[in-house]
Write a sequence for this structure.
């Protein structure tokens, strides 16, 4: 790590102002910033520590849902009884992510902003070309080893997958990201790579995620997060799905269904096509499999990651069946 | 603030004065500045768990923590685990009894993680121990014996 200066912010306004300086970076849990600074991907000259700010780590139950402070630790949110009962997909996405040590460190705001695990992105010494790191330099992943890369939402500039789990659950449950001075629906928070893969979210310089709000719903209460990966624990998703379902009074017909995917796309991926195909239907295995298949109609694979085109619809179908009580 | 900072860290109940650059991780401060070499540097990227310590009673990775960040917090390392008379902590004793290591390099991190795992109430079954100890890799593959040691220490603690 190159040398940098350190500033402990005493207020959120001070942190916002300080972070506007070129080369400044905010430090919360540190699990992304310090990791990428060691890799040489980030090269801050000023690190602004916001971990000592008070009032940003609470979990508050509101009339219409829950609000989680941006500095709340992943482990604190997992252990919260209300989150576990009213938003099980959120609790499961967190408990299946990272390791106990990392969950004690990483914050909810930082978790959303974690960077891709694309090994070309993470290795500037060996692979100078990376449009995400160095716009216009090219993509080392295309034509390289792509087992962990995205098959949805890719562009000719970038095929790096979004690695997080929490954002996938939050996307399915229509969460809102609170930036203090404005609120952004999570569906509009993350950006496709297009020709500007260096721009991953709508976050502007000087903005900080102060909270995430999740509206309560029957679909949120009846939800799950299914994660399939190369090893049983402490591994990023090969494919994952967050699914929530509300049934009509008959207990069989789908009134509301929410589906989002992780591990297969360049950003947390909402599957509205599958949702609309299943609303008003009585769930059966055939209908679920058929609807899930349309997810990958426009998928683009690059050799090693072709298995995700087959895996993703199956993971979605299994998650729907699990929430629907069919497994 | 640039250059070198003067800080004080509370490690195993003792205050340690340090003069360090902001970029120094807690791991490097422990090992290089304070000669507390029980905490190990494995991957130095938050992927192996060898550097696990406790901060305010919670297990974290010292390789991804800046030393300056934890001024004012209570830090516990493997050196602080045994009793004043040198008696092994129950988890240390269980690791010895079950031969829960081969080369021993990951062991301090395994033990610090196991102490927290038991305190969190996540050591009720072999399956639960495997899940909640998954942040500590052992390249020798002593996992079965580690699980047995954690299981015994958890039963002893309850």
């Amino acid at each position: 790590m190159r040398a940098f200066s350190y500033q402990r912010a005493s207020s959120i306004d001070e942190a916002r102002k300080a972070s506007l300086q070129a080369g400044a970076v905010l430090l919360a849990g540190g699990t992304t910033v310090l990791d990428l600074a060691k890799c040489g991907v980030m090269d801050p000259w000023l690190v602004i520590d916001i971990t000592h700010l008070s009032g940003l780590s609470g979990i508050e139950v509101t009339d219409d849902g829950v609000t989680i402070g941006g500095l709340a630790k992943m482990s604190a949110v997992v252990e919260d009884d209300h989150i576990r009962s009213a938003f099980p997909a959120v609790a499961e996405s967190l408990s299946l992510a990272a390791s106990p040590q990392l969950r004690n460190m990483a914050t909810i705001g930082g978790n959303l902003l974690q960077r891709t695990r694309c090994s070309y992105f993470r290795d500037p010494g060996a692979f100078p070309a990376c449009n995400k790191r160095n716009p216009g330099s090219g993509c080392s992943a295309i034509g390289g080893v792509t087992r962990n890369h995205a098959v949805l939402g890719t562009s000719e500039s970038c095929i790096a997958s979004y690695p997080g789990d929490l954002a996938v659950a939050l996307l399915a449950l229509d969460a809102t990201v609170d930036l203090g001075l404005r609120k952004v629906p999570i569906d509009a928070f993350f950006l496709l790579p297009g020709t500007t893969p260096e721009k991953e979210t709508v976050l502007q310089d000087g903005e900080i995620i102060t909270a995430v709000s999740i509206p309560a719903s029957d679909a949120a209460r009846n939800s799950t997060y299914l994660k399939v990966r190369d090893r049983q624990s402490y591994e990023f998703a090969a494919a994952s799905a967050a699914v929530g379902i509300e049934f009509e009074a008959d207990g069989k017909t789908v009134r509301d269904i929410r589906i989002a995917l992780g591990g297969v796309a360049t950003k947390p991926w909402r599957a509205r096509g599958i949702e609309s195909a299943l609303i008003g239907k009585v769930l059966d295995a055939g209908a679920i499999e058929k609807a899930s298949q349309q997810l990958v109609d426009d998928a683009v694979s690059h050799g090693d990651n072709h298995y995700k085109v087959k895996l993703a619809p199956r993971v979605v179908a299994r998650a729907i069946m699990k929430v629907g009580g069919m497994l | 603030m640039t250059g070198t900072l003067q800080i004080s860290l509370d490690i195993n109940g003792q205050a340690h004065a340090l003069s360090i650059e902001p970029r120094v991780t807690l791991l490097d401060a422990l090992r290089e500045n304070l000669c507390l070499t029980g905490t190990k540097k494995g991957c130095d990227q938050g992927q192996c768990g060898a550097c696990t310590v406790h901060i305010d009673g919670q297990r974290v990775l010292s390789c991804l923590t800046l030393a300056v960040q934890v001024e004012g917090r209570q830090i516990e390392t493997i050196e602080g685990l045994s009793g004043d008379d040198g008696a092994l902590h129950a988890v240390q004793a269980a690791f010895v009894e079950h031969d829960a290591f081969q080369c021993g390099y990951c062991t301090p991190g395994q033990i610090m993680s196991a102490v927290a795992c038991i305190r969190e109430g996540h050591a009720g079954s072999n399956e639960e121990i495997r899940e909640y100890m998954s942040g500590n890799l052992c390249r020798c593959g002593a996992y079965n014996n580690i699980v047995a040691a954690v299981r015994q220490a958890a039963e002893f603690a309850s």
In short: Residues 5-49 of chain A form a domain with the Uridine Diphospho-n-acetylenolpyruvylglucosamine Reductase; domain 2 fold (CATH 3.30.43).
